[in-house]
Amino acid sequence: MNREIFFRAASEYGTPLYLYDLGEIERRIKRAKDTLKSLDFKIFFAMKANSNPYLLKFIHAYGIGADAVSVNEYKMALFAGFNPGEIIVNGNGKSLEDLEFYIAQNPLCINVDSKEEIAKFGNKSAKIALRINPDVNPQTHPHISTGLKENKFGMDFETAKEVIKTLPSNLKMVGLHCHIGSQITKIDPFIEAFSSIEKFVRSQGIKLEFLNVGGGWGIDYKKDGTEMDLDGYRKIVVPFLSTLDMPIYFELGRFITASAGYLVSKVTEVKRNSYKNFVILDASMADLIRPALYDAYHEIEILNDGEEMIADIGGRICESGDIFARSRKIKIPNPGDLAVIHDAGSYGYSMASNYNLSLKPAEVAFDGEKLILIRKREEFEDILNLCLEDEDENI
Ligand code: LLP
């Protein structure tokens, strides 16, 4: 994105700020569809990656459904214009209240995470898919791996067999689901997982309306070409999935919005000691927690044209882990310069917190011409209001 847009956004809306390039979201959707085009498929956007309603509406306009993991995500999907028939419900440990809400909504499908969850439906009718845990190593960060037997998600094949055998007649099993992890760049784990599911489907002789293979497509955070092998996916995984002879559903999150989002912040201090240089930003782990939580790499660009230096880049939170990058080569900044953190459009704002009473940043979309404020910056009063009794101004 053109530098001038970052300057414009920062001066109009202040920093820190999430800025989204709508053109990039469109390009990503096209790339995904192009990869899958020889398949009977439908994509559902994993809202946990980004649940801004303006972006959801934008994504929906490309014929994409929604994958919701909470009642609030579900409500946000409805608000953004998705019909229940376009929404898949995910999540483990659903409460009875959550399930009642979903059942009354009659969504496309509720993905059931466990044998225990089946009992929670009572005698209510619903369309369900069983979430299979195929025990496959997705070769990604352990915190974002979900398809290994030690992970809390889904059920193993033996349990699934038992569930299918004893399924009450009020529940209609329309599909199977699996999601083995996130930020996956190789196709082998997918092949391994899908082959074992294919064998299971054949051995059980079950008729399904679809197979939902989840998300997990990785992106190129380091700009070194390490990303989901789309070419391999198209040449090897897609033909394999075609042989299943049923529609294949995808729940893509990161792949759709990550590279379209930037966390635009300002340098507040350049601090040097005899050992290290530190560059401190007005953004922090409260705005983007991925580096602190997963040691995740995000490119950071200082918008000036000066010399370079090596520095740790951190935020304004009182915690040593509030570091965006260690020993990173960057342009030597001056306080007030903009620092732009790349690939922050997925699991950025949606994981933001109020730690240190940080206020959640504003969100702005760029449509190729104009900037559109799509979420206001949080204000101190928004937080305080939650602590006030009705009519009480002094808690
Ligand atoms: N479907 C299910 C059932 C999921 O659990 C997830 C992500 C997705 C789809 C979407 O996966 P994606 O296409 O975005 O990889 N906060 C972490 C990522 C956690 C992903 C959790 N599940 C991060 O910032 O890397």
Description of the structure:
The structure is a single chain. This protein has helices at 3-13, 22-36, 53-60, 71-79, 96-105, 115-120, 157-165, 188-204, 230-242, 254-257, 290-294, 380-387; strands at residues 17-21, 41-46, 65-68, 87-89, 109-112, 126-131, 171-177, 210-212, 248-252, 261-272, 277-281, 300-302, 308-314, 323-331, 338-341, 362-366, 371-375. The protein is an alpha/beta fold. The strands form two sheets. Strands 1, 10, 11, 12, 13, 14, 15, 16 and 17 form a nine-stranded mixed beta sheet that branches. Strand 10 (261-272) and strand 11 (277-281) form a beta hairpin. The longest helix has 17 residues, at 188-204. The chain is globular, with a radius of gyration of 22 Å. The termini are far apart. The model has no long low-confidence stretch (mean pLDDT 96). Bound molecules: ligand LLP. Ligand LLP binds at residues 46, 48-49, 67, 90, 144, 146, 179, 182-183, 214-217, 251-255, 290, 294, 346-347.
Mean pLDDT: 96
Beta strand %: 15-25%
**Poorly predicted tracts of residues:** none
Bound molecules: ligand LLP
Q: SSE order, as H and E?
A: HEHEHEHEHEHEHEHEHEHEEHEEEEEEH
Morphology call:
globular
Task: Give the % helix.
Answer: 25-40%
Compute the number of strand runs.
Answer: 17
Alpha-carbon distance between the two ends: 46 Å
Q: State the secondary-structure class.
A: alpha/beta
Number of helices: 12
The biggest sheet, with number of strands, parallel, antiparallel or mixed sense and barrel status, is: 9 strands, mixed
Radius of gyration: 22 Å
